[in-house]
Amino acid sequence: MKKTTLLLLLFTTILFAQKEKSSKMGQTTLEELKMSVYKKDSTATAVVLYEHANRYPDNRKNQVPRTDYYFRIKIFDKASFNRADITINLFKEQKIIDLRAITYNLNEDGSMDKSTLQKTAVFTTKEGKDWTVKKFTLPNIKEGSIIEYRYSITSPYLSVDDWYFQSNIPKIKSKYDVSVLGNYKYNVRIIGFLKLNKNKPSVDKKCVYINNYGYAACSVYSFGMYDIPAFKEEDYMLSKKNYISKISFDLKSTMSFSGNVKNYTTTWKQADKTLKNQFFNNQTSKKNYFKKRIPETVLATENNLERAKKVFNFIRNHYTWNEKYWTREDAKVKEAFNDKSGDVGEINLSLFNSLRAANIEANLVVLSTRNNGISTKLFPVIYDYNYVIVKTIIDDKPYFLDATDKFLPFGQVPVKTLNGEARVVDFKDRSTWELLKPEVKTSKNITAKLVLNEDGEFSGDLMIRRNGYYASNQREKISLTNENDYLEDFESKNPDLEVDDYKANNLNSLEKPLVEFFKIKLLMDEDLANKTRIYPILFDRLTENPFKLKERNYPVDFSYPRKLNYLLNLEIPEGYKITQLPESKAISLPNKAGSFIFKTVQNGNIINIYLRLNISKRIFDASEYHALKEFYKQIIISENSYIVVEKEI
Prior knowledge:
The protein is α+β, with helices and mostly antiparallel strands. Strands 1, 2, 3, 5, 6, 9, 11, 13, 14 and 15 form a ten-stranded mixed sheet that branches. α6 (about 335-340) crosses α7 (about 345-355).
């Protein structure tokens, strides 16, 4: 969290501040206590009846910003008893005051019972040097309880906390009021897909009175949202930070009463300079250091692309990534190089300098990872970024490089970086935005040739060929264990399967497909009877639709396009006949965004099953959700269809 120290504390002669409009305790009603279900979401285990925060200059505390919080929550089910466990984090000089909490229950005679939180039930702990944590649990929680609590936080910092209108339970009403002195300017962002019911900015021209200056104005923001559905997470999504409805304030500038202006949100050009001097700690000019450490054979390579690949492999093999992202703290590439370990920033700054030492032009690229949220392009917010990679252009072709991952080929960036546009930093010219895309296409091909005997045992050959991210993920998995444990894990994920022999090709050739060969035996649940069902999709069968929501108002993000091909050649024993085959099917998504083909062909006692699933588009917007959901429903129907084999009489 970034905090900015408040400058207003110099003005100790303020006589009058804006009137408070914070919510008071005691708003719980018998009608709310009698509520047994939230009609707009009958599955909800709890609902926020009302919540409100009000931030304003506190005239009793020398105009230190104060935020009054109020929450009232109805608990329907014991699954939400944890809503009564409250944690409040305080940064450095922040203080909590006026804490009150009450649990309401309904007595047998229909009256209201109150249980008040005692001061001795509030606990304080320290977490690191900067954080204090207050914790308490509201008493006497039951199914049907209402919890009501409020507290205030005074904070000598200019930052305004985000306000989340949406959470994983529904809310009936949520309000956020913010009053700031007019000499503080903020960029205000409304994030999410839900619309505000209230958005009334105004100006209070007589917010405060200061001796020798007169009245000072406040900018007043008043937001509200009502009947807010719960935010429900689902597969194939970016960080919920991008979609959950909230208000965000980013400090833009401050102006003293003498007229001096200090900018916090600057131009992109100024932001690039800050990146170089502050966040990269002037570590972008160390090419001479790395030139002395790169092997001469690497530097002497004539072909530019081959030289770049050798530099990339040298840095990647030299370092062990310490699992830390770009921390934006002081990078020390020399120290990291000597230690052979570093974070994302140190390793890729080393790569940047090494490429330049090898006469390969390179730029640093800053970005926000998928789990960190999409960075804003409206104005520079350097703290949005948590990752840095390198871009180079060789023979007019751009390559994006990350030397922290030992299983990705040259030019392929980690999936976690595929989060929209990244900023290519050019310290000499103008920086630009570029969309990161996979360099290598991702696909998986499964080919099985099996013979079925009368004992219900399949035997034969299985080949799995992977490209792109499927290959890099599998290479990493194989590297983490020995062959015996790897095959045991493979067998455990494929019940009734036994591997007799195994080999892998191109395991260390990252730019080639990873190909695995298996000799297998696969037992059915029972011996062949007079009439037997055989499910032909033996591997990677879809049994559950990843898309279950009635409505999804945020995009489906597959990260990257992908293809799956499955081919089964199955021989049925003599004395049996095939009486039913799965129905062939071919379906597609609109605008060629995806396709599914399922085909069965019989030739005597041999059955060929062919399946192809292609997702050719990375992102599907909310309007395409139901088509995608139906698409996967049809895939599941086909993949769970079966062959019927009967014994000949």
